[in-house]
Design goal:
Elements (H helix, E strand, L loop, with lengths): L6 E2 L5 E3 L5 E2 H23 L6 H25 L1 H4 L16 H20 L3 H25 L14 E2 L1 H10 L6 E14 L2 E12 L3 H14 L11 E3 L5 E4 L4 E9 L5 H21 L9 H17 L16 H33 L1
Parallel strand pairs: 1-4
Antiparallel strand pairs: 2-3, 5-6, 6-9, 7-9, 8-9
Helix pairs in contact: 1-2, 1-5, 2-4, 5-8, 5-9, 8-9, 9-10
């Protein structure tokens, strides 16, 4: 049987591993804040505001966004795991950020910024920050792609991604050895399983174990992943094939066949969508002067970004809620955000219309 077409994503998330580890995600995060810094600075200059406020803008939104995103992940998505290990909440380097929590954190920090620094209406600041946030969200989703995280649902589309690097790393964890090297080579074969066609791949595992222990560890690996495609993070499954185990100077080499699971690259879908949203808001600010209708840019951001998030979630694996639920956690959290956005759009348009009527009466 011919294999399905897909794209193998074999990208190491680390740009540099020694002497100092630099990851694509961290680099893109830094680029997003630098870009946002200059965008907001340009807005302040345009409106004749104090340019020295820009450092405060960056500080408040950075702290609010990161703290909010972390707490959002903890309480919205993973409280069951964190409630008994509260110290892990501070281990932000292990991953775990939620955009909905980040949005709440930015709003709170902007309120503090408005009270302590600008002395202006919070909407004045939010109308600028959300434009920078949209382009930051674009960069961050590319970072998620580099990390092979926030993956989409299983797919047989030719544009689907097989996250090969993550699959190889996962397989390596099953072998309790000082060293292990895993290499997956997609083949030209496929297998029918539960009415679906899945591509097959050759997997070569080199471990610093003798033949007997290599066989024992492989059997555990094979049994743990046999036909298992229910885990939302699965990238492969085993099919009870006869593994070939040979002794080498390194230890042992295991050669077997596994099934692989291509997925929809929702990171790219979101990144592209957020770029379009950024361009629309940016043009709206400069060409259509939306900033003069206080709250309009903020409302447009909430409606556009979280409507997009709501739709794209249908192509993602379910998060925290039962797989049979019609909506997942990300979608439920997007509903109030869109509702609030609609409110501010209507409020901005009505207020501006009222001001125009007063001007005409005069």
């Amino acid at each position: 049987m011919d294999t399905l077409a897909f794209i193998s994503w074999d990208v190491n998330p680390n740009i540099i591993e020694s002497p100092i580890m630099i990851r694509y995600y961290g680099l893109l995060m830094a680029i997003s804040f630098i870009t946002g810094y200059y965008i907001v600075r340009k807005f302040l200059v345009n409106e004749g505001a104090d340019v020295e406020w820009i450092d405060k803008f960056l500080f408040y939104t950075l702290i609010g966004g990161v703290v909010g995103a972390r707490l959002g992940h903890v309480f919205f998505y993973d409280w069951v795991d964190y409630k008994d290990n509260l110290i892990d909440i501070f281990k932000i380097w292990e991953g775990g950020l939620a955009s909905h929590g980040g949005a709440i954190g930015v709003i709170i920090s902007t309120w503090l910024l408005s009270k302590r620094v600008t002395k202006k209406n919070i909407l004045w600041a939010l109308d600028k920050i959300v434009i920078a946030t949209a382009i930051a969200a674009c960069f961050i989703r590319v970072g998620n792609l580099m990390n092979s995280e926030i993956i989409g649902a299983k797919s047989d589309s030719e544009s689907a991604f097989f996250f090969q690097y993550e699959a190889e790393k996962t397989i390596g964890r099953y072998f309790d050895a000082e060293e292990s090297n895993v290499n997956i080579e997609p083949s030209n074969r496929a297998i029918e399983l539960d009415g679906n066609t899945h591509p097959l791949a050759k997997v070569t595992i080199q471990v610093s174990l003798d033949t007997i222990n290599s066989k024992r560890y492989y059997e555990h690996f094979e049994l743990s992943n046999r036909g298992n495609m229910n885990n939302a993070n699965d990238h492969f499954f085993t099919i009870n094939s006869n593994a070939e185990i040979t002794t080498t100077n390194f230890g042992s080499t295991i050669i077997s066949t596994i099934g692989i699971i291509p997925r929809i690259p929702t990171q790219l879908l979101e990144s592209g969508t957020y770029l379009v949203i950024f361009l629309l808001l940016f043009i709206g600010y400069w060409k259509w002067h939306w900033y003069k209708k206080q709250g309009l840019l903020f409302g447009m951001f909430l409606v556009l970004l979280f409507s997009a998030r709501f739709i794209i979630e249908f192509w993602k694996e379910h998060q925290t809620l039962d797989d049979n639920a019609s909506l997942n956690m990300g979608q439920w959290l997007s509903v109030p955000a869109v509702t609030i956005g609609v409110f501010f759009i209507v409020r901005a348009l009505i207020k501006k219309s009222a001001e125009n009527e007063k001007t005409e009466l005069k």
